[in-house]
């Protein structure tokens, strides 16, 4: 009886193949070199290999630091007053028995007696709050308001003008203590958005033009076209007037803030805050701009009257919601930030003392470092994908 040789099992053959692969394994460096030699650059790889595709958006994340601003020439910045916003409180502004929607405040002003008046767009109401943010009164409007402005009055109270774009109407109100009394209605020939007091009258953004009118609605002057005949403005969402009667225009369509003279001559154009919304000026020749862009690091910038950025005051993390408008109470240096939320946040706006470390600056610096780190990680991942 002859003996026959046994056939190796599948497991034995698999182990032999693994041992042979390990002996003749090709180093990883050689593999990468061979891949680079064989793979021809495709059009897609060239497109995504541009550095602009991996860079973070300049409007959202690029922000000048305080030490860089101090190196600006003295000729361009005549007077620089660094401000610091310190959190003081948060207050609920929803009237539960009257408001059926979530609040969105796009217009707010402190009255001379310290009370706060706001216009709530989704709930179509004009609301009055005390100096300690206690509810006093409200008035139901015929349409959705956009913003409001405070005008000087010969009476004991204050005159407030509210724009209602859907009705193409500006409504006047008399506000005093706990009462809101409606007055005259001013009709406009277009959708009216931004409004601000100008001398003894008003300046209003109607469509893509700026109209100067008296308090009775008579149009005195119009600005619409630039020197080359093109439209100078897009959507004039917010307006404010400086002490020298220059006009700050917040243009949400062109995504910039423009400062112009009463004759329409452009002084500066600022576009480093994403989507600009509410603007404000103070007695120390500062301009404040809040940007309504969710997730952006900087949502409140401080500028000089020449348009140079001084400092980033607040971030989205400080506010917690997208801000639409800001207002300032000079008596106790209180800054109120309102927007797409049922609450408003207040900050004390003080002059920054040199050499002192502030919590807001530490938070914003940490956010910028984290953003740069995550951006670099995304760049490395994309580069690895392209190499493969």
Radius of gyration: 30 Å
Shape: elongated
Note poorly predicted spans: 31-78
Number of strands: 24
What is CATH's topology name? Neuraminidase
The percentage of residues in β strands lies in: 35-45%
CATH architectural type? 6 Propeller
Assign the CATH superfamily: TolB, C-terminal domain
What is the helical fraction, as a range of percent? 10-25%
Strand order, sheet with most strands: 1-24-23-22
Structure keywords:
single chain; alpha+beta; Neuraminidase; 4-stranded antiparallel beta sheet; 7 helices
Outline the structure in words:
The protein is an alpha+beta fold and 388 residues long. The protein has a single domain (58-370), classed as Neuraminidase, CATH 2.120.10.30. It contains seven helices and 24 strands. The protein has helices spanning 10-23, 28-38, 43-48, 58-61, 66-69, 316-319, 359-387; strands at residues 83-92, 105-110, 116-120, 125-129, 135-140, 148-151, 158-164, 169-176, 179-187, 192-198, 201-206, 209-213, 219-223, 236-241, 247-251, 256-260, 266-270, 276-281, 286-291, 300-304, 309-314, 323-329, 334-339, 343-351. The strands form six sheets. A four-stranded antiparallel beta sheet has the order 1-24-23-22. Strands 2-3-4-5 form a four-stranded antiparallel beta sheet, with no helix packed on it. A hairpin with a 4-residue loop joins strand 3 (116-120) and strand 4 (125-129). The protein is elongated and about 110 Å long. The relative contact order is 0.13.
